[in-house]
């Protein structure tokens, strides 16, 4: 047995690892800033101006993070008998890799606009995105936790098999 019983939820589905949730939170940082700015009424516009002086970058970040936000929501809705949700969650690993690649390209574009001048924010962003991409590609726990659960076949009294 690869995983302990405590790593499964009450539906019998393998829980997603905490590092995956933290990586998704990093990918959706524009959404986090947007929600924090909306929650702090008077200072909200100042927060947005400070973090995203160019509103186009905020909108671009919101669009890039939207599939991850929807995927995080779907992970919370998973059950053993919800086929459509489980199929959508099965694609979430590849969607996450695609979003990481888009954000990497976007960050490299921003660094290019700054004439390759070093800034800590861009450096940390590039390192974290590269780390998360490697984690998504290599982690067996991520692959197993986002896999669609298999249905169990049971035999009825008449000898018929049913999917559960």
UniProtKB/TrEMBL annotation:
Name recorded for this polypeptide: Inner membrane protein YfeZ
Organism name: Vibrio thalassae
Transmembrane segments: 18-37, 57-77, 89-111, 117-137
Domain of life: Bacteria
Lineage: Bacteria, Pseudomonadati, Pseudomonadota, Gammaproteobacteria, Vibrionales
Keyword hit for Repeat: no
Keywords: Membrane, Transmembrane, Transmembrane helix
Keyword check for Transmembrane helix: yes
Gene name tied to this protein: yfeZ
């Amino acid at each position: 047995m690869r995983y302990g019983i405590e790593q499964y939820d009450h539906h019998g589905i393998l829980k997603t690892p905490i590092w995956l949730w933290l990586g998704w939170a990093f990918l959706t940082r524009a959404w986090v800033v947007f929600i924090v700015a909306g929650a702090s009424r008077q200072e909200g516009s100042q927060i947005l101006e400070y973090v995203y002086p160019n509103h186009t970058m905020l909108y671009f970040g919101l669009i890039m993070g939207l599939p991850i936000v929807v995927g995080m929501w779907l992970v919370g809705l998973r059950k053993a008998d919800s086929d459509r949700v489980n199929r959508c969650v099965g694609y979430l690993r590849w969607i996450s890799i695609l979003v990481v690649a888009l954000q990497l390209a976007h960050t490299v574009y921003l660094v290019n606009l700054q004439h390759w001048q070093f800034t800590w924010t861009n450096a940390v962003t590039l390192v974290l995105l590269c780390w998360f991409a490697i984690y998504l590609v290599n982690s067996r726990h991520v692959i197993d936790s986002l896999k669609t659960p298999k249905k169990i076949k049971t035999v009825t009294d008449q000898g018929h098999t049913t999917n559960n």
